[in-house]
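A.,

Following up on our hallway conversation. C-alpha cells first:
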C-alpha cells in the first residue's frame, strides 16, 4: 500500500517550497522523482505529511501551532447595587439576631417630620393605587387586611393571607423574610421536616419579637431600595371609623376580620369606587432607614397588623419613591398598581422586588420604551422571579430574575403569587458556560434573529469582551457568504473561553420548597424535588403541568415532584384537624 504514495504525489499539482524536513531528518523536495525514492524514503515522506507538518523555506519542518490560551471571561453578574446619592450615615442595618432588642422609634429622630396628605393628595395617590372603575368588592379586600403570621407552629414564620388580592405584596415580603432567616440571620442551624441538616425555615422559633424584627427588616429593605435618596415615608391609611388620635400611628379600633372592620371597609370601598376619597393618610418622613425600620417594627404589633396594614405599606413605598417616579417607571403613565379582582399588577411586584415599578420582567429595555430589569442600575436582584405566563410565551423572564443573589423566587401565575426557595445558596448561581451563552445570545440578537450580516462582527466581538486581534480568526471561522449564523457564533465564543462544544452541563438535582400563605385552604409548605437531565420530559412522553412548566423555564429538561411538608394538605395538618 505504501507504493501508492509516489503515484499520488506525482499526479496532484502542489505548490510546495523547495524542501522540507521529516521528523527523522529526511529532507525532500517536490521536484524530486518519487519513483526513484527508496521504500524507506517513501515511508519518511508519508510520515511527515501524515503528522501535519508544514513545509517552510530553509528545509525546516513546522507542526501546527498550539491553540491560543483561552480568554478569561469577566462576569457582569454579582454587582452590588449602590445608592451614591444617599447620606453616608444612612445605611441599611444588619439583619437582626435573636439577641437583638427592640429599639423604640422617636418622632425627634434626625430629619423626621410629620406627614398628613390632603384630600387631593390622597386622591392622587389612590388613583395610582386602584385601577379606575374597580368594583367596591375588589377594593374592600385591601381595606381589611394586615401583616399577620400563620397560626400554626409549623408555619409560624409564614405570612398569613386571609384575603385574595394582596399576594403580590405578601409574597415579596415573605421572600425577604426567608432571606433573613436562611442567609442573613438565624436560619443556618435549622432544618426543614424531612430535610436533615437544615431547618423548617417557617417553623416557630420560639421568639415572637424575633419574628417581628425579621419582618420589619424585610419591609425596610424594600423601602430602602425604592429610592436613591435618604427620604423615607412611613404612613398609615385609615378608614373614617379610626377616630381622632394624638399618635401619628393610632392603633386600629377594630381587629382585622371583625364584623366592625369589615363594615368599615365595605363603606370606604364603596365611596372609593364612586370617586370620593374617605381614607386618610398620615405618618412620618425620616431620613434614616434604621429609624424607618424601628417604626415598622412597632407597627407590626399594631397598625400594620390591622385593617389597611398592607395597603399602608404599599402607600409608604409609593410615596418614598414618589408618584412621579413610579409613573416614569411604567410603560404607560396611566397604569395602576392594583387591577381587576383586586390583584396586584406586575408593577407592584417589581416595585417590591427591585424598587422600581417597571412593567416587564425581561433584562434591560426593549424597543426603547418597554422597560424591564436594568442590569446597570439594579445589578443582580436579591430575590428572583419566575412566571407561569412564560410557559405560554406571554412574558419573557430575564436572566437577572432567574438567577438572583439568593435562591428565593416569587412565582407568579395569572391569579396568585407564591414563594419558591432553596436552603443552599449556590442553587441561585449561573454557571460560567450558561452565563457566556446568555451573554452571547443577548449580544447577537441585538443585531438579528438567528443570523446577522458579517459587517456586525467587530461589534459582536466587542460586546463579548474579545480583542480586535480576534477578528481575522473570527472572520475565517464564522463568515459564510457575508452572513454569521447564531449557532456558529455561540459555539465559537464558547471555545474562545475554553469551553468545548461537547462539554455537557452537569446533571442537576435540587431540593426546593414552596410556601403559600393563602387561606383558604390555609398556609402550606411543600417540598419540590427537581431532577434535570439531557432529555426533555415532553419528548419522553411526559406531560408537564403548569407548575412544572414554570420551573422548566429556569431548569430546562426537568422532572418535578411535589410533596406536602407542613400546613394545609400535609399529614400533620390532617392530624391536627382530627
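Then the amino acids I'd put at each of the 578 positions:
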Amino acid at each position: 500500500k505504501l507504493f501508492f504514495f509516489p503515484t499520488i504525489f506525482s499526479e496532484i499539482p502542489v505548490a510546495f517550497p523547495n524542501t522540507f524536513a521529516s521528523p527523522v531528518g529526511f529532507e525532500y523536495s517536490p521536484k524530486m522523482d518519487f519513483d526513484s525514492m527508496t521504500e524507506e524514503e517513501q515511508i519518511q515522506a508519508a510520515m511527515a505529511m501524515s503528522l501535519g507538518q508544514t513545509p517552510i523555506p530553509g528545509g525546516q519542518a513546522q507542526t501546527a501551532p498550539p491553540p491560543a490560551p483561552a480568554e478569561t471571561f469577566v462576569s457582569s453578574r454579582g454587582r452590588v447595587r449602590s445608592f451614591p446619592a444617599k447620606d453616608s450615615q444612612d445605611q441599611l442595618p444588619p439583619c437582626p439576631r435573636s439577641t437583638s432588642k427592640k429599639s423604640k422609634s422617636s418622632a425627634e429622630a434626625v430629619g423626621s417630620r410629620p406627614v398628613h396628605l390632603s384630600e387631593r393628595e390622597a386622591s392622587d395617590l389612590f388613583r395610582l393605587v386602584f385601577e379606575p372603575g374597580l368594583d367596591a368588592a375588589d377594593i374592600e379586600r385591601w381595606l381589611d387586611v394586615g401583616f399577620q403570621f400563620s397560626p400554626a407552629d409549623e408555619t409560624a414564620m409564614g405570612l398569613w393571607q386571609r384575603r385574595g388580592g394582596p399576594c403580590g405584596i405578601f409574597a415579596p415580603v415573605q421572600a425577604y423574610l426567608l432571606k433573613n432567616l436562611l442567609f442573613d440571620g438565624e436560619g443556618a442551624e435549622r432544618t426543614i421536616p424531612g430535610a436533615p441538616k437544615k431547618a423548617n425555615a417557617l417553623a416557630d422559633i420560639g421568639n415572637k419579637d424575633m419574628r417581628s424584627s425579621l419582618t420589619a427588616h424585610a419591609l425596610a429593605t424594600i423601602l430602602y431600595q425604592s429610592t436613591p435618596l435618604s427620604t423615607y415615608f412611613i404612613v398609615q391609611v385609615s378608614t373614617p371609623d379610626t377616630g381622632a388620635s394624638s399618635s401619628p400611628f393610632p392603633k386600629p379600633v377594630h381587629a382585622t376580620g371583625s364584623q366592625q372592620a369589615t363594615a368599615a371597609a365595605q363603606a370606604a370601598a364603596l365611596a372609593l369606587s364612586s370617586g370620593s376619597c374617605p381614607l386618610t393618610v398620615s405618618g412620618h418622613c425620616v431620613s434614616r432607614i434604621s429609624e424607618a425600620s424601628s417604626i415598622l417594627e412597632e407597627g407590626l404589633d399594631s397598625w400594620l397588623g390591622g385593617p389597611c396594614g398592607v395597603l399602608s405599606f404599599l402607600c409608604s413605598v409609593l410615596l418614598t419613591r414618589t408618584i412621579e417616579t413610579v409613573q416614569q417607571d411604567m410603560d404607560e403613565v396611566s397604569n395602576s398598581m392594583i387591577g381587576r379582582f383586586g390583584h396586584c399588577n406586575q408593577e407592584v411586584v417589581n416595585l417590591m422586588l427591585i424598587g422600581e415599578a417597571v412593567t416587564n420582567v425581561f433584562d434591560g429595555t426593549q424597543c426603547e420604551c418597554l422597560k424591564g430589569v436594568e442590569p446597570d442600575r439594579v445589578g443582580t436582584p436579591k430575590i428572583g422571579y419566575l412566571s407561569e405566563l412564560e410557559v405560554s410565551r406571554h412574558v419573557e423572564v430575564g436572566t437577572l430574575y432567574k438567577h438572583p443573589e439568593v435562591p428565593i423566587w416569587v412565582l407568579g401565575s395569572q391569579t396568585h403569587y407564591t414563594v419558591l426557595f432553596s436552603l443552599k445558596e449556590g442553587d441561585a448561581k449561573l454557571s460560567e458556560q450558561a452565563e457566556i451563552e446568555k451573554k452571547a445570545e443577548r449580544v447577537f440578537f441585538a443585531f438579528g434573529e438567528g443570523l446577522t450580516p458579517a459587517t456586525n462582527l467587530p461589534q459582536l466581538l466587542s460586546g463579548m469582551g474579545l480583542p480586535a486581534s480576534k477578528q481575522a480568526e473570527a472572520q475565517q471561522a464564522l463568515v459564510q457568504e457575508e452572513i454569521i449564523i447564531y449557532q456558529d457564533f455561540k459555539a465559537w465564543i464558547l471555545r474562545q473561553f475554553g469551553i468545548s462544544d461537547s462539554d455537557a452541563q452537569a446533571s442537576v438535582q435540587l431540593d426546593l420548597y414552596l410556601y403559600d400563605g393563602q387561606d383558604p385552604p390555609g398556609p402550606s409548605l411543600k417540598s419540590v424535588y427537581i431532577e434535570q437531565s439531557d432529555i426533555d420530559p415532553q419528548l419522553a412522553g411526559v406531560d408537564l403541568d403548569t407548575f412544572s412548566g414554570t420551573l422548566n423555564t429556569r431548569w430546562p429538561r426537568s422532572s418535578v415532584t411535589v410533596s406536602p411538608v407542613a400546613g394545609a394538605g400535609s399529614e400533620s395538618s390532617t392530624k391536627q384537624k382530627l
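The CA atoms of residues 504 and 534 lie 9 Å apart. Curious whether your intuition agrees with the design.

B.
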